[in-house]
Design brief:
The chain is an all-alpha fold. It has one domain. Helix content is 69%, strand content 0%. The chain has 14 helices and no strands. Helix 3 packs across helix 5, helix 8 packs antiparallel against helix 9 and helix 11 packs antiparallel against helix 14. The radius of gyration is 20 Å and the shape is globular. The protein starts with 5 loop residues before the first helix and ends in a 20-residue tail after the last helix.
């Protein structure tokens, strides 16, 4: 993942800071070590990029118990940081809200750099938008259509995840599975780029757990997780862009649109598969009685044939 993070290192994008702090915070919470530092790390990352970290924070809120208390502490610190930043920026740049709205309007307009459609400035570059809207826009480049379709796909998955989290007892294994399910869905439902997908680091413990248990489920987890990391990385995406440019595909027909999505929007497709897979495993795991919390990291996942 580090070898495929040229955009983060080259541009100094804040995603590098946000992902790092978020991963550190999750490790602190789930291992019950350096918890105050974890609270501060998650609060800072949530304040900088809430659309990256928001659903990770939501997991700890829904998990209940001491984790809900920590999530509320994170929210309090984030609120203090956000209010302080708002007051300071309002003092040094009184018209910043108008400038911000103008900037968002310009970069999100048709053909703008943040517009997910195929005609956008970054639509066919390794720095492409990777949300589900980007894939749907190949078939219909209309915000009313691709936003609606994306929400119809992602919102039910998020509701299933949230309900299962509320109804299941917390264990460390279930926590890693829950995070492995929510991180890909985070990338899909709102605007994100490949550098944000470095948050997939949080899916590796769940993949390792399934692989250690052996069987078909472990092999599938390894395959899907590897694909998720590769197809959201800079070098593989650059190779796909070169291939797509040389083929000069037409999107006039349905077959051409399918090929275009596969070659120019691979990240969106693999993230959707990844999110559905880990959500399925999480729901099946959460439907079983929890083991002793002191040994919950060894909780077995039911085999796929069960």
């Amino acid at each position: 993942m580090i070898a495929n993070a040229e955009v983060i290192f080259g541009s100094g994008n804040t995603a590098g800071i946000v992902v790092s702090l978020c991963v550190l915070a999750v490790w602190c919470f789930l291992n019950e070590r350096f918890v105050p530092a974890g609270i501060l790390c998650l609060a800072v990352s949530l304040a900088i990029k809430p659309h990256d970290v928001g659903l990770v924070w939501l997991y700890f809120l829904l998990a209940g118990g001491v984790h809900r208390k920590r999530a509320l502490q994170v929210l309090l610190i984030t609120g203090v940081l956000g209010l302080s930043a708002f007051l300071w920026v309002s003092h040094v740049a009184p018209h910043w809200i108008e400038d911000w709205r103008s900037n968002l309007s310009a970069i999100s307009s048709p053909g703008g750099i943040n517009q997910p459609g195929p005609t956008s400035v970054g639509g066919s570059t390794p720095d492409m938008v990777i949300d589900l809207q980007a894939a749907v826009s190949v078939f219909k480049d209309d915000p009313r259509i691709y936003n609606l379709v994306s929400y119809l796909v992602c919102v039910p998955l998020l509701l299933v995840w949230a309900i299962r989290t509320l109804r299941s007892r917390f264990t460390q294994t279930r926590a890693w599975l829950a995070l492995a399910a929510i991180v890909p869905l985070t990338m899909l439902i709102t605007y994100h780029r490949p550098y944000d997908a470095k948050l997939l680091l949080l899916t590796i413990p769940a993949c390792a757990t399934l692989w250690a248990q052996g069987g078909a489920l472990g092999r599938i987890a390894l395959l899907i997780s590897t694909a998720g990391i590769l197809f959201t990385s800079d070098i593989p995406l650059a190779i796909f862009v070169i291939i797509a440019d040389k083929l000069q595909m037409s999107t006039a027909g349905f077959f051409g649109q399918i090929v275009t999505v596969v070659l120019t929007r691979p990240a969106s497709l693999v993230l959707l598969v990844m999110g559905i897979f880990y959500l399925w495993v999480y729901v099946r795991s959460a439907s079983r009685p929890a083991t002793d919390p002191r040994t919950s990291e060894q909780e077995p996942i039911p085999p796929a044939t069960a």
